[in-house]
Amino acid sequence: MGITGVYYEEHKNLEDILEGNVQPPTLDIDKTWSLIVDMFPDIPLVPVGEQYKVDSQATEYGSFYLPADKVAEIAAQIPELKQPENLTKRIDFEKWKNIPEMDIEQLDERAMIMLAFPMQSDETYEELVDGYLLPHLESVFELFEKAFANQSGLVFMIM
């Protein structure tokens, strides 16, 4: 099942990326993409909305494109987003813990995406967030800042 998320920095090579001719990806965020979607429903750090969807031969699970101007808009927000108190407000442990037990027919689209994130029975979300999610999220922030500096777009794919 396609649940790993990868980014490609796009600078006049969108067609090559979408055809699967660019490897390796610029950044692999593994399965954290589903948590990041839930944390930032208002900011497309992981742009899985229909408005960003593009056709691609590289994956059957979904490809999404943020043009350079949208990357710049998001990058401008990153210094504030990175503040620990702002991140803490976006982490919803209780919701995340209860997703697997919820009736699948009652889950909204964002909650359905959360099912892609595996939790081991001997792990706590706190451990997963500190040791797994936050390092990947920091890499996403750095990627947006780098892409902005390079005046590049970003392609996100679920593999």
Can you put this structure into words, describing what you see?
With 159 residues, this protein is of the alpha+beta class. The protein is built from eight helices and five strands, in the order E-H-E-H-E-E-H-H-H-H-H-H-E. The chain has helices spanning 14-18, 33-39, 68-75, 78-81, 84-90, 93-98, 109-114, 125-149, and strands at 5-10, 27-30, 53-54, 63-66, 153-158. It has a five-stranded antiparallel sheet. A hairpin with an 8-residue loop joins strand 3 (53-54) and strand 4. Helix 3 packs across helix 8 (125-149).
Give me a quick take on this structure.
By secondary structure, the chain is of the alpha+beta class. It contains eight helices and five strands; from the N terminus they run βαβαββααααααβ.
